[in-house]
Specification:
- This protein is an alpha/beta fold and 143 residues long.
- The protein contains 5 helices and 4 strands.
- The protein has a 4-stranded parallel β-sheet, covered by helices on one side.
- Helix 2 links the parallel strand 1 and strand 2.
- Helix 3 crosses helix 5.
Length: 143
């Protein structure tokens, strides 16, 4: 038996919102940081924005997580199929449903156009939910 055969695949999560510029990017940033590479992380949007919400970037930098290099990505069938968990965030019918996939819907306010004082509670709720997801996946948070 080879080492690859003994290694279990990493769990994977896909965060989906409409613009992939705030909520899903913050969630992906937290999951990347807190899983320290133990979880494969993806994010996408049903109608991606041009760039990441700068206020979401600032809110994450306050937590020491830099998402400035992230770019909004289009939701693809491949991303969904490659993910164990699909977490939608406020995209409703704009997000397709794939039978057989584990789904969660996180109802969260949209940080678009909001000031930092409105984005912080959204960020904090996302962090709490990401930590809960890590526990469900059996991954100990790195921080």
């Amino acid at each position: 038996m080879t080492t690859d055969e003994l290694t279990e695949p990493k769990p994977s999560a896909l965060f989906v919102c409409v613009h992939n510029a705030g909520r899903s990017q913050m969630a992906a940033g937290f999951l990347r940081a807190l899983s320290d590479g133990a979880v494969e992380v993806r994010s996408a949007g049903s109608m991606p924005a041009e760039m990441i919400n700068p206020t979401a970037v600032d809110a994450m930098l306050e937590r020491g997580i830099d998402i400035r290099a992230e770019r909004p990505k289009v939701l693809t069938d491949e991303a969904v199929q490659a993910s164990d968990v699909v977490i939608t965030m406020g995209c409703g019918d704009a997000c397709p449903f794939y039978p057989g996939k584990r789904y969660e819907d996180w109802e969260l306010a949209d940080p678009a156009g909001q000031g930092i004082d409105a984005v912080r509670p959204i960020r904090d709720e996302i962090e709490k939910r990401v930590r809960h997801l890590l526990a469900e996946l059996g991954v100990e948070p790195a921080a």
